[in-house]
């Protein structure tokens, strides 16, 4: 899967290419990253990529001409490749979207905007998708592009050492992840749950599912709204609610 990123700060992507799981995937050729700097498509001495907005107001807007030229270079020979713009106005990017992108394996061009944004005509002419990684504003789209790429690339076949690593991630089943522990067994009086040391894989699986349900209920109850639970999840969820009610009654007494 190939990612083409249009950015005036391509050096920011060094960390993605050189570190961690994604860096190794790029180095092994399991994914590909190409960077396109709009400054390379300017004709003035200062390599200007921004200008004042029409109508006035603070900040600057990325100019149409260098962005369009960079897009055309990235799309060269691939007229049908999809182009996405990282923007606070975009649709929310989540694990389901990342999974769908990885499953399709389709190449993607990403525009990492800067300043107050990009000329709207770029969006009207080129953009197929707009993605937001959250309801906040960043200094530029580079970090958002790296978040999207990291989430997708780690799901590509063979990137993670074990397929189960991705399958058990938070959100993969619509729930937050369960707690995890490693050695030593006891630290400052804090004990690893006995069930995880039992060797009973079925009990461990059930414990982890219950923990994931409880953690999701406590921290992200919105994820449970409209969720179609299995019979086992319904039973565990009722146990959680009952235990919570008992705890509240004990506090009142």
UniProtKB/TrEMBL annotation:
The keyword tRNA processing applies. Its EC number is 2.1.1.228. It catalyses: guanosine(37) in tRNA + S-adenosyl-L-methionine = N(1)-methylguanosine(37) in tRNA + S-adenosyl-L-homocysteine + H(+). Residues 1-225 form the tRNA methyltransferase TRMD/TRM10-type domain. One of its GO terms (molecular function) is tRNA (guanine(37)-N1)-methyltransferase activity. Keywords: Cytoplasm, Methyltransferase, S-adenosyl-L-methionine, Transferase, tRNA processing. S-adenosyl-L-methionine binds at residues 113, 133-138. Signal peptide: none annotated. GO terms for biological process: tRNA N1-guanine methylation. GO terms for cellular component: cytosol. It is an enzyme of class 2 (transferase). Gene3D superfamilies: 3.40.1280.10, tRNA(m1g37)methyltransferase, domain 2. Pfam families: tRNA_m1G_MT. It is found in: Cytoplasm. InterPro entries: Alpha/beta_knot_MTases, tRNA_m1G_MeTrfase_C_sf, tRNA_m1G_MeTrfase_TrmD, tRNA_m1G_MTases_N, tRNA_MeTrfase_TRMD/TRM10. The keyword Flavoprotein does not apply. It comes from the Bacteria. Homodimer. PANTHER family: TRNA (GUANINE-N(1)-)-METHYLTRANSFERASE (PTHR46417). Specifically methylates guanosine-37 in various tRNAs. HAMAP family: TrmD. Belongs to the RNA methyltransferase TrmD family. This is tRNA (guanine-N(1)-)-methyltransferase. It comes from endosymbiont of Ridgeia piscesae.
């Amino acid at each position: 899967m190939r990612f083409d990123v249009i950015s005036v700060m391509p050096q920011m992507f060094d960390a993605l290419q050189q570190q961690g799981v994604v860096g190794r995937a790029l180095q092994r050729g399991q994914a590909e990253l190409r960077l396109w700097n709009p400054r390379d498509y300017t004709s003035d001495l200062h390599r200007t990529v921004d200008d004042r907005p029409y109508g006035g107001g603070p900040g600057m807007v990325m100019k149409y001409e260098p962005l369009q030229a960079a897009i055309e270079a990235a799309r060269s020979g691939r007229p049908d490749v999809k182009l996405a713009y990282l923007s606070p106005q975009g649709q929310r990017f989540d694990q389901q979207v990342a999974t769908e992108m990885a499953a399709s394996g389709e190449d993607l061009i990403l525009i990492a905007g800067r300043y107050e944004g990009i000329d709207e005509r770029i969006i009207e002419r080129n953009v197929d998708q707009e993605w937001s990684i959250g309801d906040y504003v960043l200094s530029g789209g580079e970090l958002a592009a790296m978040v999207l790429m990291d989430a997708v690339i780690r799901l590509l076949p063979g990137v993670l050492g074990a397929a189960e690593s991705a399958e058990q991630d938070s959100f993969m089943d619509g729930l937050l992840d369960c707690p995890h522990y490693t050695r030593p067994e006891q630290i400052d009086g804090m004990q690893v749950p006995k069930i995880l040391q039992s060797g009973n894989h079925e009990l461990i699986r059930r414990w982890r599912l219950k923990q994931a349900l409880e953690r999701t209920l406590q921290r992200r109850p919105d994820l449970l709204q409209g969720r179609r639970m299995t019979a086992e999840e319904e039973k565990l969820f009722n146990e959680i609610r009952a235990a919570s009610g008992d705890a509240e009654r004990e506090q009142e007494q």
